[in-house]
Write a structure and sequence with these properties.
Elements (H helix, E strand, L loop, with lengths): L29 E6 L6 E6 L11 E4 L4 E9 L7 E9 L5 E2 L2 E5 L9 E5 L5 E5 L8 E6 L8 E7 L2 E8 L3 E11 L6 E10 L9 E4 L7 E6 L2 E8 L10 E8 L6 E2 L5 E2 L11 E3 L1 H4 L2 E9 L5 E8 L11 E8 L4 E9 L7 E4 L4 E8 L10 E7 L7 E5 L7 E6 L10 E6 L9 E4 L5 E3 L8 E2 L2 E2 L2
């Protein structure tokens, strides 16, 4: 297939009746947030194709066809920050990737609009295209054929943010997301946590409010069987999201019909106060900020939250070391333990709970742009459920740019357990995408393709 020029189309509803155009390679979007006026330039920035952690899942392994499907925030040739939503897959049988399909020009440079992915029981791909706030629309698209990225149909146009769609066999979709609304603390809007359900992805329930206290929340979520859990923080005034703190956890065993704590105590929602039954630890009392990273479950189905604490929101060494930690529900209490230190609040990695060990894969090494978003990727291993951690390997080195936002696929196959991007956090740059297997072999997705399918280049 000859790729279409990306600069001449806007994919929307009617345009999706034709096969999607294919790009010439894998390029991620570059993005920044909040200029800082110092040598670190921004609060956070860099190659954000797999950003943010509040969007999940972005990759799903489909064993029936032995492919890991994934979505990411791409950009058009010759530009660093014109966001286009891309859909592709890694074929485990051939070790190759196709030219990525271009689903949607989001008409923004804001990586908060990056997409998420779900696959239903019949193998149809569902792409949820987020919006950062209320000024742009959000979309839901479905593939026209199972396990195919060739054609998609527009299912819904609405407005929602920070999308976390979970397909639960036998139940349908549980869609956790954020909506912006007045927080009653003066001018401005806050981030309220909501959920919706759908048996088929087409007919949706009304949005149900899960939590809205102070100036709002961020959340990360993950399923375990038919249970879905969410870990979230709170945004107190006056700084709101720059003052994010506290750690909370809730789970639902029945697609939102009831919500309960890790101890099984049923909780009435919505939560509207900072102090509530979902509280894991009061970090506001400790003077610590909380940056959520990941959520997983141990063999007994008990939640393990990966998060980072920091003294302040600004980049640079003045805030001291940032500490990656796990909070593990042990059946009667939460056990909080240190994993490692890193040098930036937005050094995002993922947690892997395996039969004989736990692993954290994250950009904890400083990288070529220290004290900025990301760094070099390291593997940390615990043989004793988080009691002790050891740096097992460094997965990237001699990099040109920082790597960041390491994301774990849903139902990850050993051949593709992590997806991330790189980029210069100090100024606009090109951004490449990478994935790794369970053995720590790292591959770069081809930034420029000469054939319809190609093998990614191994770099480690």
């Amino acid at each position: 297939m000859v790729p279409m020029r990306l600069s001449v189309f806007l994919l929307c509803s009617a345009a999706l009746a034709q096969p999607l155009p294919r790009d010439t390679g894998y390029r991620g979007i570059w993005y920044f947030n909040q200029p800082s006026g110092d040598q670190y330039v921004y609060k956070y920035s860099g190659g954000f194709a797999t950003y943010p952690q509040q969007h999940a899942p972005i990759a799903v392994y489909a064993p029936r066809v032995r492919k890991t499907f994934f979505v990411y925030g791409g950009t058009v040739p010759g530009k660093y920050n014109q966001l286009v939503h891309m859909v592709s897959y890694y074929d485990h049988a051939t070790g190759r990737v196709p030219r990525p399909a271009v689903l949607l020009d989001k008409q923004t440079g804001d990586a908060h609009d990056n997409p998420t992915l779900a696959i239903d029981a019949q193998g149809y791909l569902w792409v949820f295209s987020s919006a950062h706030g209320t000024s742009r629309p959000s979309f839901i698209h479905r593939s026209r054929r199972p396990y195919s990225i060739d054609e998609f149909e527009l299912v819904s146009k609405a407005n929602f943010s920070y999308t976390q769609p979970w397909y639960l066999p036998g139940s349908g979709f549980l869609f956790l997301h954020t909506r912006y609304q007045s927080h009653g603390l003066g001018a401005g809007t806050g981030r309220a946590l909501y959920w919706m359900t759908s048996p088929d992805g087409r007919q949706w329930s009304e949005p149900h409010l899960l939590a809205f206290a102070l100036m709002g929340h961020y959340q990360v979520s993950w399923p375990h069987g038919n249970k879905v859990g969410t870990a979230f923080n709170v945004h107190p005034p006056p700084l709101g999201l720059n003052q994010r703190t506290n750690l909370y956890y809730l789970e639902t065993p029945d697609a939102g019909q009831t919500w309960r704590t890790a101890a099984g105590e049923q909780v009435a929602v919505p939560l509207r106060t900072e102090s509530n039954a979902a509280l894991v630890h009061d970090y506001r009392a400790d003077g610590q900020l909380v940056y959520l990273k990941d959520l997983q479950y141990d063999a007994a189905g008990r939640p393990v939250i990966l998060f980072l604490t920091s003294k302040g929101y600004e980049s640079g060494p003045a805030q001291g070391a940032r500490t990656l930690q796990t909070a593990h529900w042990r059946g009667s209490a939460w056990q909080i333990r240190k994993v490692a230190e890193t040098d930036h609040n937005y050094d995002h990695g993922s947690l892997y709970i395996e039969p004989r060990r736990w692993r954290v894969i994250a950009p904890t090494a400083p990288g070529p742009q220290p004290f900025s978003t990301g760094g070099d990727i390291e593997e940390w291993v615990s043989p004793d459920e988080g009691k002790t951690w050891t740096r097992a390997a460094r997965w990237t080195k001699n990099s040109l740019y920082n790597h960041t936002y390491v994301r774990r696929p849903l139902n990850a196959d050993p051949g593709f357990i992590a997806l991330w991007a790189d980029g210069n956090p100090l100024k606009p740059s090109e951004s490449s995408l990478y994935f790794a297997d369970s053995r720590g072999r790292v591959f770069q997705l081809p930034p420029a393709m000469k054939s319809d399918t190609e093998k990614p280049r191994r770099i480690r």
